[in-house]
Amino acid sequence: MEKRIVKADGNGAIDVNGQVSPVTYTVSLKEGKGRSYEVDIRLMAPRDWLLQRGFARDAVLVSQSGARIPVYHDGGNHHDDDDRLDPADTISIELAARDDSCTSEADLMRKYPEFDGADA
Questions:
Q1: What angle (nearest 5°) sits at the alpha carbon of residue 77, between those of residues 39 and 75?
Q2: Mapping DSSP to helix (H, G, I), strand (E, B) and coil, where does residue 82 land?
Q3: Of residues 107, 36, 25, the one with CA closest to residue 59
Q4: What distances in angstroms separate CA 7 from CA 39, 90, 117, one per listed residue?
Q5: DSSP, res 65
Q6: What pLDDT digit, counting tens, does each position of 22-52 carry?
Q7: What pTM was estimated for this model as a whole?
């Protein structure tokens, strides 16, 4: 049985060391094992804005629902020994997370209202 993927966009904020900025992000949903759901969250943030706020590898996305979701930069070729962001990285940095904490459609819609109206 093929698992369908549903995508939706959201508007929220990114929090880096207590400094917040508006951000758009994409959520992708697929059915997980059993009665769970897997949600992938992806957003792009300006490299210089992140560096100026002391970003290393992780930040917090404040989603439309108000949920605070840790998002991470997975690294790349231009990082120092600590795997921290570097001025040589691309100008836009992708941050991502995976959430498999939703065990019902009600949980999913409460945490991710972005999917409201989507055929999930």
A1: 30
A2: coil
A3: 25
A4: 9, 25, 11
A5: T
A6: 999 999 998 767 778 899 999 999 999 999 9
A7: 0.82
pLDDT tens per residue across span 49-71: 999 999 988 999 999 999 999 99
CA 102 to chain centroid, in Å, comes to 15
Please give the Cα distance from 63 to 95 (Å, whole number). 14
Place of tokens 């549903």: 6
Helices (H), the chain: 47-52, 105-111
Cα–Cα distance, 34 to 47 (Å, whole number): 39
User: In sequence order, what E strands does 1-120 have?
Assistant: 5-16, 19-31, 37-46, 58-62, 68-72, 92-99
**Residues 14 and 21: beta-carbon distance below 8 Å:** yes
The label of the residue with tokens 């998002």 reads 71
Which one-letter amino acid corresponds to residue 47?
A: R
